[in-house]
Amino acid sequence: MRAQFVLSEIGVGLRRNLTMTFAVVVSVALSLALFGGSLLMSDQVNNMKGYWYDKINVSIYLCNKSNAQGDPNCAKGAVTEDQKKTILSDLNKMSVVQKVTYESQDEAYKHYKEQFGDTPLASTITPDQMQESYRIKLKNPEQYKVIASAFNGRDGVQSVQDQKGILDNLFGLLNGMNWAARAVMSLMLVVALMLIVNTVRVSAFSRRRETGIMRLVGASGFYIQAPFIMEAAVAGLIGGGVACGFLVTARYFIIDHGLALSEKLNLINFIGWDAVLTKLPLILATSVLMPAFAAFFALRKYLKV
Fold first, then answer.
1. pTM above the 0.85 mark?
2. Helix, strand, coil fractions of the chain, as percent rounded to 5
3. Of 130, 147, 127, the residue nearest 57 (C-alpha)
4. Is pLDDT at 245 greater than 90 in this prediction?
5. Which H or E run contains 26?
6. pLDDT, tens digit, for every residue of 72-110?
7. Distance separating alpha carbons of residues 106 and 146, to the nearest angstrom
8. How many CB atoms lie within 10 A of CB 261?
9. Residue 264: pLDDT band by 50, 70, 90 thresholds?
10. Helix, strand, or coil here: 117?
């Protein structure tokens, strides 16, 4: 097979169906950009989970004089020194506990003022209204229920709260957004495949005389099909290149510059460039193979060779 012939036929086919080729490039670019974006979103969520789950605590809030009057869990009054010592001793004996930190009312008030000092409610809060607490770092964040079952309902304990539950809601929302992006990506992928099939069909129909002559002179099926398959692959590759450009540009302007989320949201551990660059070869390979296979199967039906 002469490479020059194949390349010339690719150029002819792309020029003849310029509008549909452009539509293929755009649909492939959008679908693969969403595909790459969903992969990066999964990496980001997993990265955040690993970062935050390692830092979350279980908090045991103790009864004080303020909530002893209206909270049924503190009906027996504010926590005593003996009860605090017993709770701390029991925590230190538990194998699931890695570290225990005590927070006094004054420390809790200081932290509250740092976070909510600008709100109107902050001026009405006094240190004696704050709760003492034990902040427990678990060896495995999934073992929160062990702490909850051991200390909920105990004298002097107002409540046991797990910060993991708050994070689970956040990660659930992020995962939901990720699956929505994948659904849109799947729809765009179907549209791209349909456009590829129609483009190949139109191209094969417009060159039916040439292919008929090639059959008469004994050209093989693959020799006849190759230009059409390569046309789809080239259009897909262009779309894949555009998709890669979208991802690189988005990472640059959203995280590093422009919006500069890495500077504004210091508490979020964003994915690095290595995560983006490792996805680009997969996107380019998909952009070539997907249209090529779609064209190959379309030609089996529309080009009787």
1. no
2. 70, 10, 20
3. 147
4. yes
5. helix 18-53
6. 888 888 889 999 999 999 999 998 898 898 988 888 888
7. 29
8. 14
9. confident
10. coil
